[in-house]
Amino acid sequence: MWRHSAVIRWPFKWVYQELSCTGDSMDTGWLSRRQVDLIISENCTQTMSHSTQDAVARLQDTVADGRLTNSLYRQQQLAKLQSLLIKRESDLVNALTTDFCVTRKEAFVELFLTVSAIKSYLDQTLPQKELHIEYSVTRGQDASQIRQGIGIAIIEPQAHSFLFSTLSPLCAAIASGNAVLLVMKQNLRVMPRLVGNLLREALDPGIVEIVSSEPAEIPASIRANQAKDVKSPNSLGFSNKSLSVAIVDRTSSLGDAAQLLWKARTSFGGTSPYAPDIIFVNEFAKDEFIDRLLKCAAELKDAYDESWKDHPEKSKVTGSGLVEGSRCISSGVWGQVIDITDRHVLTDCRKLQERTFRLYPYRSLEDVVETVNSLSQEPNLATFAFGDAKSCKYILQFVEAEVGFANIIPIELLVGPAAPRGFSTNLSTRFSFDMFSVPRPQFAQATPLSSTLNALLRETTSVRDKDKLWNSLRPENRGPPKQDVGYFERGFLVGASTIVLPVVLGTGAAMFFVTKALLRRYGLGL
């Protein structure tokens, strides 16, 4: 059987159809005129339709010629790409709002964060400093900070925040000295083609190659597939299935917590991996929190008409998470609020990809910590704690999560993929040079330890010298660390003071008056 794709004209509409050998329509989808024009123009121009093997070969040639080891060259390439992104602002914002359920403001924020991430990589690329470190050995100095690119970075972005998820790791990989194989699936979206055209226009040939399928194993490569949670030495792992949870204590400002959680769950299409999947609310504050959440829905729902009017297929609530043991409190075009009444339902909760708020009440902080930690054997992706400072500290200390936040949900966190596992979470760029490079330290100076070891091997060590050696290795006796008075100790001191203090004062007063009376009796006076 064969399949043929075609763009055909229907009265007042354009239709994309996949036809089988029998002529039956296998898949049909409505297209905008803009998408059709782009497809036709792409078919009429020369595109990068080379095989994956050829693309890999070209990248390997680039790595072999060594141009990416030049930090000044890498800096120039990133600067050209950054300048082109700013120049094409209008096209990028329009494409983001066409392909994804985001507002124009959210699309601009994503573009701004992308350009900001490139600036961060440019600021970290210091040609003069790297040149100085490179020639440290010629001056008889150590160069322990030298790192070099792995070779080829294979990047497959996720759909959420497509522009940022594509260009932030791509630019980090280039800035680290790697060539990039960008894997983008063939579809009818505008953004993949627009990003591909921008990369071809801004960068020199051989730095980035675009393919539609992920290649097999490639020597000297690092993979960053944001759609998969791969655990291997040459891959960055992304916790795509790990939950993000929010814990709202009764000591929190419920209005502020509701507004922050509302924005996190509904912004950028409601598909951010860091948007809370379950919200745990103290049972005494649950009703008020729900009222505040529904108030946010009433006040802010108009902000989403712009992003959802062009995506009617996604404007309906799918009912995700509404199973036996849960009930829908309220729903609308803005989303839905689900109250989980059975604790066993929590074990079946999965990542959300829509504007749904799943609420579960808890009795105490100890109860919620135990409940959250029992949801998975692996740490949660993120924990958002709302409450006073002490409650937040307790929650973030004992709830297992890759990153924790106290009374805040940074907007930049909602843009882009989950931070790669095993690295510190960078809110603004999400990626770092260390992810795409390996250490290659160089040493030219002998250490004091080497001198000591050479002396031990060369000479006979006396008992006195051995005692000096052992004494030099013993830790300093700094005394016991100063400890704060604990809760129970403080209670004991308060209780003791209320009992002992009156006795001491009474005894002192009695002794004073007795002494005064004796002195008067014997005529000594006082």
UniProtKB/TrEMBL annotation:
Pfam families listed in its UniProt record: Aldedh
Any one GO MF annotation of this record: oxidoreductase activity
Domain of life of the organism encoding this protein: Eukaryota
Record keyword Transmembrane helix present: yes
Keywords, in A-Z order: Membrane, Transmembrane, Transmembrane helix
Keyword tRNA processing: no
Residues annotated as domain Aldehyde dehydrogenase: 52-223
InterPro entries on file: Ald_DH/histidinol_DH, Ald_DH_N, Aldehyde_DH_dom
TM region positions: 492-514
Protein name stated in the entry: Aldehyde dehydrogenase domain-containing protein
Biological source species: Fusarium euwallaceae
Biological classification of the source: Eukaryota, Fungi, Dikarya, Ascomycota, Pezizomycotina
